[in-house]
Design goal:
- By secondary structure, the chain is an alpha/beta fold.
- The chain has a single domain (about 25-215), classed as TIM Barrel (Alpha-Beta Barrel), CATH 3.20.20.
- The chain contains seven helices and nine strands; from the N terminus they run ββαβααβαβαββαβαβ.
- It has helices at about 45-55, 65-70, 70-80, 100-120, 135-145, 165-180, 190-205, and strands at about 10-20, 30-35, 60, 85, 125-130, 150, 155, 180-185, 210-215.
- Helix 6 (about 165-180) links the parallel strand 7 (about 155) and strand 8 (about 180-185).
- Helix 6 packs across helix 7 (about 190-205).
- The protein is globular and about 45 Å long.
- Is involved in generating a small heat-stable compound (Nod), an acylated oligomer of N-acetylglucosamine, that stimulates mitosis in various plant protoplasts.
């Protein structure tokens, strides 16, 4: 697709301030774009350029290890107006760990992303996604009873499959059309995702969709504290 001269004014939708997972209520035709596992040099920066070209904002759930390795790129995501949340430190299946190990992994990821963002005066948002969408009742309850906003997935692009960019775009559009709205999962670490995004966003625009920007509700001037690994376990949690 040739570079657009002017950013779209039709695809960018409303900003939704979220205080809990329950606040994420989308209207028909509304889409939330999310990107997991980054930031990654050569991929995330290209995705940022495409999103800017279309005038839309996304939510990036970053790995602590990736943000630690690419702090300037993590900062650029936030400075471009996108929402940055966390996704553990090493993309571990939390369901395979014991409770304290899982909490430690989540906390380590938050700390690393937070430190990376702080280099440009940016703050980590409270959004979090479970790697592999693997969770336990205890972990979900623990996080949601705190200040964490767990992001689920309505439409999985499966861009981690070794398919062509066109196949990923078509599959995602078909699933979105069937559902009518939803949170879409991409990963900003794959060349196929970089390649398919312009055509995918053009199709959204032509289909009359709008991209909703998620932001945390204002929690005060000091923002949100990063969770601590030694937080006490919740008694009686699922």
């Amino acid at each position: 697709m040739p570079e657009r001269i002017f950013a779209s004014s039709r695809l960018g939708g409303r900003t939704l301030a979220v205080g809990s997972t329950a606040d994420i209520i989308l209207r028909p035709g509304e889409v939330v774009l999310t990107f997991d596992d980054g930031p990654r040099a050569g991929k995330t920066n290209e995705i940022l350029a495409t999103l800017d070209d279309f005038g839309v904002k996304a939510t990036f759930l970053m790995l602590g290890s990736a943000a630690q390795s690419n702090p300037k790129l993590a900062q650029q995501v936030a400075l471009n107006g996108h929402t940055v949340g966390s996704h553990t430190f090493n993309h571990v299946d939390l369901g395979s760990l014991d409770r304290q190990e899982a909490l430690d992994e989540i906390a380590k990821g938050e700390r690393a992303v937070s430190r990376a963002l702080a280099g440009a005066g940016q703050r980590l948002s409270p959004f979090f996604r479970f790697p592999y969408l693997s969770q336990t009742g205890f972990l979900r309850t623990n996080l949601m009873q705190g200040s964490t906003i767990v992001l689920d997935v309505d439409i999985d692009s499966k861009d981690y499959y070794k398919d062509s960019a066109a196949t990923v775009a078509q599959r995602t559009l078909e699933r979105l059309e069937k559902r009518g709205s939803g949170i879409v999962l991409f990963h900003d670490i794959h060349a196929r995702t970089v390649a398919m995004l312009p055509d995918f966003l053009s199709a959204l625009e032509q289909g009359g969709y709008s991209v909703v920007r998620l932001v945390p509700k204002d929690t005060g001037v000091f923002g949100r504290d990063v969770i601590t690994a030694d937080a006490p376990e919740l008694r009686g949690a699922l």
